[in-house]
Recover the amino acids of this structure.
């Protein structure tokens, strides 16, 4: 099968993970895809295929003769999707010879437009895959899975020499909890790549330093008719807190390496209010400064409204994997070389988020991220092209060749 044919097969198997669950996997539906993939891996001749009771799927491909000394290279993609826009059947749409203009998504009244997504102009003439506008597509990250298995099939068909290869498909990437249960020793790779990025020429080895912040506001609630100099409205103090954060440092206002504060949700009444933020920055010093700013605002408001009015809880989530990958830059240099070999211009872009590869890098498995050819993930505008997926397959196939030649 071509990569896009595999994608069409996988996306109709719904696998939303569940952020509220405390189990691994967070949703049992992820096993539905895992079982399909397990069978396909075995049919492709992948060895030692194992599906664990926590929904991790591992497999190995031994080195071909003469390449035994090459490092074991791993390829990883995740099986889950976000839960948003994933509450009913996914119906992928194929638009051949896309004209680069506005495209109606089924009967949803949504329109995929270059005004919203300027890169669509560059996809003119390609075969575009979308949902019908009522769900996500699920290319994040079923495209990565499809591309890895298509690469394996191509190597088998073309008798491509290679070193030891390790394959893994994982649950719960979208909740940020899956990688904690990844068995690095069982996987057996010296180095790995996640296929979980956007455009097919992307190479990513820098991600945000990340922290979650819960801010609780404890008010004084009395009858409004007799509350002069007594009432402390927790919701108003919460609004005051947010107004004291630096202006223009939200996701909407930032790009590239610029960090931000992001208000995820809020709840409140007079007596009690809560604000949930995430804090992000690529630079560790700026990241720590952002946390200190929140602490200072908390202190200032407690001085104004009384001790204990504002309670701030910070929880670090993940770190920038650059500090690990910087010691193994062959991973990036070889990825660039593979891109150029298949006539792609490599782009090293920072990840404005996190990735399983970040957590795995700090657990001893250096693991940058590669693009799959997809765009507009996590919503009904998600889309990918057949040609982009084909290029991603070509690129990782060349990457395997490069490592086998260098160490043969």
């Amino acid at each position: 099968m071509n990569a896009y044919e595999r994608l069409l097969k996988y996306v109709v198997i719904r696998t939303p993970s569940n952020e509220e669950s405390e189990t691994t996997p967070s949703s049992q539906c992820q096993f539905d895809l895992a079982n399909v993939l397990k069978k396909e891996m075995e049919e492709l001749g992948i060895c030692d295929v194992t599906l664990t009771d926590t929904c991790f799927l591992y497999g190995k491909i031994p080195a071909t003769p003469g390449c035994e000394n090459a490092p074991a290279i791993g390829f990883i993609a995740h099986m889950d999707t976000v839960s948003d826009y994933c509450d009913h059947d996914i119906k992928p749409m194929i638009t051949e010879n896309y004209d680069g203009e506005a495209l109606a998504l089924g009967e949803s009244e949504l329109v995929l437009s270059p005004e919203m997504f300027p890169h669509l102009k560059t996809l003119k003439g390609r075969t575009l895959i979308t949902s019908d506008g009522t769900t996500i597509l699920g290319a994040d990250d079923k495209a990565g899975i499809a591309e890895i298995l298509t690469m394996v099939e191509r190597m088998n068909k073309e008798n491509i020499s290679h070193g030891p290869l390790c394959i893994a498909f994982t649950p719960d990437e979208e909740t940020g909890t899956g990688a904690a249960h990844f068995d690095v020793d069982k996987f057996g790779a010296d180095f790995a790549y996640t296929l979980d990025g956007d455009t097919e020429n992307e190479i990513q080895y820098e991600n945000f330093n990340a922290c979650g912040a819960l801010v609780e506001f404890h008010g004084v609630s009395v009858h409004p008719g007799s509350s002069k100099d007594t009432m402390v409205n927790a919701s108003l103090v919460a609004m005051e807190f947010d107004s004291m954060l630096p202006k223009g440092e939200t996701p909407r206002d930032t790009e590239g390496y610029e960090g931000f504060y992001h208000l995820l949700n809020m709840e409140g009444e007079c007596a009690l209010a809560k604000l949930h933020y995430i804090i992000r920055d690529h630079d560790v010093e700026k990241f720590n400064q952002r946390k200190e700013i929140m602490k200072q605002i908390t202190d200032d408001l407690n001085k104004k409204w009384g001790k204990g009015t504002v309670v701030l809880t910070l929880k670090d989530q993940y770190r920038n994997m650059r500090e690990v990958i910087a010691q193994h830059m062959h991973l990036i240099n070889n990825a660039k070389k593979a891109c150029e070999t298949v006539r792609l211009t490599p782009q090293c872009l920072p990840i404005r988020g996190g990735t399983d590869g970040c957590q795995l890098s700090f657990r001893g498995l250096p693991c940058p991220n590669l693009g799959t050819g997809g765009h507009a993930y996590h919503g009904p505008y998600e889309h990918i092209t057949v040609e982009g997926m084909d290029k991603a397959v070509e690129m990782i196939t060349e990457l395997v060749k490069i490592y086998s030649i260098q160490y043969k």
In short: The first strand starts at residue 47 and ends at 51. The chain has a mean pLDDT of 96. Residues 166 and 188 are 7 Å apart (CA to CA).
